[in-house]
Design goal:
- The complex is a heterodimer of chains A (111) and B (122).
- Chain A is mostly beta strands and 111 residues long.
- Helix content of chain A is 0%, strand content 44%.
- With 122 residues, chain B is mainly β.
- Helix content of chain B is 0%, strand content 52%.
- In chain B, strands 2, 4, 5, 6, 9, 10 and 11 form a seven-stranded mixed beta sheet that branches. Chain B has a four-stranded antiparallel beta sheet with strand order 1-3-8-7, with no helix packed on it.
- The model of chain B has no long low-confidence stretch (mean pLDDT 96).
- Classes of the chains: A mainly beta (111), B mainly beta (122).
- At the A-B interface, strand 3, strand 7 and strand 8 of A face strand 5 and strand 10 of B.
């Protein structure tokens, strides 16, 4: 059971918009810890997608955006493309476990 | 080129030990906290351990505390993970990752290695 909760899977057709939620608690996201997002393409290492809730590293398309409110955060992907098919993970810091925690991951399928 | 390259993975028997290494290049290694993150086959990501930039402080997930030791040699730009008393639950790909951020509550992994597979089995 992950400290951060994500839906196991989401799907969408090319060109559509999908949103992946990340639900935490008062010991992590609700305690003002930043939320970050990673993309893991099949068979590869994770790569940073969004940092500090809303920021994109250079090289990440602006189709990817992040938001945070209360004890939750979301990753939105607009203009869905076949190459976006991957696993997506949220991450934050948790005061309760005194460590860095990940969501269980969400598998995105592009129909 | 900015990169992290892990090595040292392999097959080890239950109760055995293994030492992982991570060679860093392309950035000032001694300026950043470094971490190990693992991923069991078909499972999600799990943070395992972190060491601050000068090696003066370390942190561990409860699942590895007392069995794993993280260390670094800034003169060699290398991160290590000594793993003892290994069990089947430790079977995973182990990623070396560079931390970025000011306060711990802001830290995120901005650079990842390709990982090294550790298999614990008799």
């Amino acid at each position: 059971q992950s400290v951060l909760t994500q839906p196991p899977s989401v799907s969408g057709a090319p060109g559509q918009t999908v949103t992946i939620s990340c639900t935490g608690s008062s010991s992590n996201i609700g305690a003002s810890s930043d939320v970050h997002w990673y993309q893991q393409l099949p068979g590869t290492a994770p790569r940073l997608l969004i940092y500090a809730n809303t920021n994109r590293p250079s090289g990440v398309p602006d189709r990817f955006s992040g938001s945070k409110s209360g004890t939750s955060a979301s990753l939105a992907i607009t203009g869905l493309q076949a190459e976006d098919e991957a696993d997506y993970y949220c991450q934050s810091y948790d005061n309760g476990v005194s460590g860095w925690v990940f969501g269980g991951g969400t598998k995105l399928t592009v129909l | 080129e900015v990169q992290l390259v892990e090595s040292g993975g392999g097959l080890v028997q239950p109760g055995g030990s293994l030492r992982l290494s991570c060679a860093a290049s392309g950035f000032t290694f001694s300026s950043y906290a470094m971490s190990w993150v693992r991923q069991a086959p078909g499972k999600g990501l799990e943070w395992a351990s972190v060491i601050i930039n000068n090696g003066g402080d370390t942190f561990y997930a409860d699942s590895v505390k007392g069995r794993f030791t993280i260390s670094r040699d800034n003169s060699k730009n290398t991160l290590y993970l000594q793993m003892n008393s290994l069990g089947a639950d430790d079977t995973a790909v182990y990623y070396c990752a560079k931390f970025r951020g000011v306060m711990m509550t802001e830290w995120y992994f901005d650079l990842w290695g390709r990982g090294t597979l550790v298999t614990v089995s008799s």
